């Protein structure tokens, strides 16, 4: 699926000006859908259930031309098995997600929160079921999966009520989710994954073992990736990490080396266990994430 | 305050010329303050990816800290060294001018520069004297503000050129550069006495100068330093070393090559117009290499008249004779000149020679016939062109004649003299005349002793006291090994009859200390004596020179001698005449260091005497009254060459004197430096230029080195900062 150019509405800087998660999610999804060349809505089940009015982005293959001939309006044919896809959003609400670099308009959490909301919106629009889990060192909130449109409000409430206070223990959480999620589903992880890589990989492997499709949106701030600090800086550690005084110029090379090793180990680990990995810089548009989801959705559908 | 800081331990080896400039060292705190201030200005940010930052820190903190400290240290060192450079440090750490450096501003240095003429020896492009001057100037330049300097010229006699401490270094350097070399040797004992005197004066006048240094700059010539082992010099050095540090800079080298003119004399004493005058020249090769066809030039009054070439083996002496026929009577300057070598000063020698058309001799006889044989011997044949013109007169002529027109006076058997006659003779001698006194039976010894002898005081003009005549006997002549020039021509010529001359009676003489025996009798009594008197010379013959003196106590009367009839008589009388008139010429030829003197007739009023030395400098000399004449004396003959004496009286006299080297110094023999007394600290550099180079880092403006280091640190800091930054980027 091709996106010619990210609409301005998908730019985090634009999104940051919008208040309210609902508005942001709607903005993202509408902006995203408007930019698609062809509708990703395909792979629906065979058994017809009812008609639904055409919306931009819908696959024209499912337009009921007979009804069009009679009424001169576009209606799509809906099938019974259309809602058999279950998607679980797993959102990291640890303290490290609170970080926002000097060059970005959204913190990692805000970015991930907006992305999660948009995904939930998109999933429900497709009549799929959406569930939500927030975690840090333990699962802080959980919303069961449902395809009911009214379910979106509950998801948004949980997203907005998250408190970023604790350390993360992503590996353990993934193990726990593996136990909890019995039905095969798409698991979308939104996290900076600042935890032990081996533990994380072990958790993700467990999820894969349970035949879940796992998509990892590795949310990182540009400052974490580039470490472009110039002046001597006191780094106040989040998640109970110590306070460090350093000259970033002299440390940059060593830091980037460490960080690159970490990124590469996460990327390689994910590829090895069949997890879709997508690095999400918080200064980049959201469409990449949405496209990744829809690609997974198509495979599952 | 700063000096105290440097008076202990290793720091005592250092000296800061401008210590207040060290205050700039306080700026070294600036990098530290900037470092601390920049720490205070840290940005503060929350940070999520702390795990990776900590890992980076853990692995690089040590290197990073070292880099930071290294840069900080370089920056601090840079400022400290810059401040140190501004303070202009001098160190004695390498030895050398330790005393100067240790004692900032409280040192009195006596600079003693050897001015003997061997210092004129050229080593490379410069003479030893120039090297010594250069070293002395360096010592002055490397001193510190407040140090005092005095300057002594090691010569014979020595001179305290700067006797009181001078504190202006530039003035002192100028004095050193203006110092003149002498053409004489060096008098070490007298120089040490002069140094002591200067040290004493400095202690008395400048008590602030607590340290005393004595620097000798010399070529260690043996003629000067040979005395260093004597008890007198040892004692003086011992005493000096108790109060001063003695340091010796050896600017000499062994194995010098030199050829010198060691003698120039006219064989005849007085040259005659139109007759060949023989010049005896002695050349000595004082080096270790043979010289073939050594060029010898003879000049008369500046015009070359002869040129000779002589082979000179190493260490050999060549005696050559040149001949010149003078056409004009008067005073002439003969010069012998050699080709160039490394020691130029002894390649010349001068002779002031009086040329006469004829010698005028006054023969005074106290008894008729007493001077007849003398006159006959002087002028055997009466000729118009005779070289000697004797004038035989009675004894009254002494008062009647103007003695100034005579070269020599023979007093033959004159019975007694009056005071006026004695005064005339004395004046005659003082002006360079010659007097030959021949005794005889007329002579009254008491009168001679009283009027002309030792009892005459300043009028004395006899070389001996006269006793009574001896009894008749046969007395034979002892030629005293023909040592004296008067009798030297008789050597090997026994047939001339000198030894067989019959002498039966003579007057016993008691010679004065200054008298030189020419002939004696076999019983040891002197027969002929010679002595210089003023510019002239007097000879005294103890027996008669005629056939008119008799001892009448025997029958028949016995003549005093048969001298006048003997074949040895004519040549002996001529030799006596030459010797008697040689005085004037000899006094016009002196050695360096000896005094020039002369007399001017009292009748000339308002006389001024001016001496022009060979360098062209003119100097007026005082005239003092002595007897009937005005006498002048000039002692500053420290240059060899021709001195002009100008008597600015109505007669406008101008005389020329030749001052020559005492060529002992030409041998360039060196005193073995290892035998120097232990009081000396000797600079061991064989080459004086090396001595300079050793001095250079000690007193050379050390700030140049420091600035070079500062520059290096600046570059290093930039490179390191760039490298560290690049490594971190």
Based on the model shown, name its key terms.
heterodimer; A: 301 residues; alpha/beta; six-stranded mixed sheet; two-stranded antiparallel ribbon; 10 helices; 10 strands; disordered N terminus; B: 729 residues; eight-stranded mixed sheet; 16 helices; 28% helix; 31% strand; elongated
What does this structure look like?
The complex is a heterodimer of chains A (301) and B (729). In chain A, a hairpin with a 3-residue loop joins strand 4 and strand 5 (139-146). With 301 residues, chain A is α/β, with parallel strands linked by helices. Chain A has helices spanning 12-16, 21-34, 65-71, 108-125, 151-161, 170-180, 197-209, 222-226, 248-273, 287-300, and strands spanning 48-53, 75-79, 86-92, 129-135, 139-146, 186-191, 213-220, 233-237, 243-246, 276-281. The model of chain A is unreliable at 1-5 and 37-47 (pLDDT under 50). Chain A is globular and about 75 Å long. In chain A, 41% of the residues lie in helices and 21% in strands. In chain B, a hairpin with a 5-residue loop joins strand 33 and strand 34. In chain B, helix 5 runs parallel beside helix 15 (688-699) and helix 7 (188-205) runs parallel beside helix 9. The A-B interface holds A 95-99, 102, 108, 192, 194, 221, 224, 229, 231-239, 241-242, 244-247, 249-255, 257-259, 262 and B 38-39, 41-57, 59-60, 64, 67-68, 724-725, 727-729.
